[in-house]
Amino acid sequence: MERLMLAVQYNAYDGGANALQHVEVPIPSPNKDEILIKMEAASINPLDWKIQKRILWPILPAKFPYIPCMDVAGEVMEVGRGVTKFKVGDKVVGLMSPFSGGGLAEFAVIKESVTASRPPEISASECAGLPIAGITALQALSQTIGIKLDGSGERKNILVTAASGGVGHYAVQLAKLGNTHVTATCGARNIEFVKSLGADEVIDYKTAEGAALKSPSGKKYDAVIHCANEFPWSIFETNLSMNGKVVDLSPTLGSVMNFALKKLTFPKKQLVPLLLLPKGGDLQYLVDLVKQGKIRTVIDSKYPITKAKDAWARCIDGHATGKIIFEF
Ligand SMILES: NC(=O)c1ccc[n+]([C@@H]2O[C@H](COP(=O)([O-])OP(=O)(O)OC[C@H]3O[C@@H](n4cnc5c(N)ncnc54)[C@H](OP(=O)(O)O)[C@@H]3O)[C@@H](O)[C@H]2O)c1
């Protein structure tokens, strides 16, 4: 007889939190290169509700019903025959494919290639915050901007927008491991919090200075990790140093066209769209930084799976400080 598990799924596009349904479905089986985990924690990202709102239509969800959420942490219960790095009983964290989805369930299947070991001293919840938000911040800083996180590179001025959010709070901490001066934007209530992450200067985004993205000390930015919503290019342009780049995490058709146009005309200042690449090595690097006490996951709120609708609504609301976590 098939073993069942509790899960949360939706059956069609749109509908927000109210469209989530609590169901019992069969426990999935791992393929050759996959691992079955018993879930201990998961985190929710704006991408999860944006998929429900058709941001990747008609590609995702590949089929309905769809179990959302991709950031997962738990204990290995079973491994596919091709898996070499993990065994039953290991504690792990992983990033599920958006095509399969499946994180909001008691058991989940992840590919070995996007799984990292979790040391016993780091909680499942702290690790579950890392995959999407942490890898995005890491790839934006180290791969797109070229910041050396051992501090050996030349000094750069960085602006992180929405520094109080999931991606932003990792981006500030990672940027400070490099040789950087960090300016950050956030709401007034989070200014002290963002300073505690290491930001050198913080601007309230609801003030005139925040709207103009002006550094209080008059610095021009060599790079912007842009985690907030769309902003006019003209505002970025006046604040960038000669070769400054804006890494845009939520590119629109307009911003991608802008990027293509600017590439064609060889300007030095650029808007660079970024889409994270799921890499187990990057995830392990982040877990190791947490273990060494160099970065931390700040948890906005924790929910049991039975309160999935509340967590979903909180994420759509867009006012989380750090990460929204499910504990199983
Ligand atoms: N391209 C990719 O691969 C990729 C990967 C991950 C994420 N993303 C995108 O990156 C964006 C950020 O994700 P996230 O997980 O960090 O979001 P999040 O955690 O939901 O961000 C919430 C935070 O943003 C702050 N905020 C909102 N608008 C702001 C503004 N205009 N200026 C300054 N702060 C503002 C909020 O502060 P208040 O409460 O004070 O308003 C809140 O603390 C999302 O659009 C997400 O879809 C893209």
From TrEMBL:
Residue ranges occupied by any Enoyl reductase (ER) domain in the UniProt entry: 15-326
A Pfam family matched in the record:
ADH_N
Q: Name one GO molecular function term.
A: oxidoreductase activity
| SMART domains per the UniProt record, alphabetical | PKS_ER (SM00829)
InterPro entries per the UniProt record, alphabetical: ADH-like_N, Chloroplast_QOR, ER, GroES-like_sf, NAD(P)-bd_dom_sf
Origin: domain of life = Eukaryota
Q: Which Gene3D superfamilies match?
A: Medium-chain alcohol dehydrogenases, catalytic domain, NAD(P)-binding Rossmann-like Domain
Protein name, as recorded: Enoyl reductase (ER) domain-containing protein
